[in-house]
User: What shape does this take?
Amino acid sequence: MMTHETSDTLQYPVEHCATCDETIDVNEWHVAATDCSSDGETAILSFCCKECRDRWKQE
Ligand SMILES: [Zn+2]
Assistant: This one.
């Protein structure tokens, strides 16, 4: 019999969609965009889906 162990101690950073605030499982594929603000700081934004990234780009 096979036992599949799941560990609760594994800690992954939890990302939230920059558009809809949906929680993103960072183990899965997700969309990211680089936000270059006017003061020269670069931020990596995460999105739950392509649609949310497109919505963010339109703003
Ligand atoms: Zn989203």
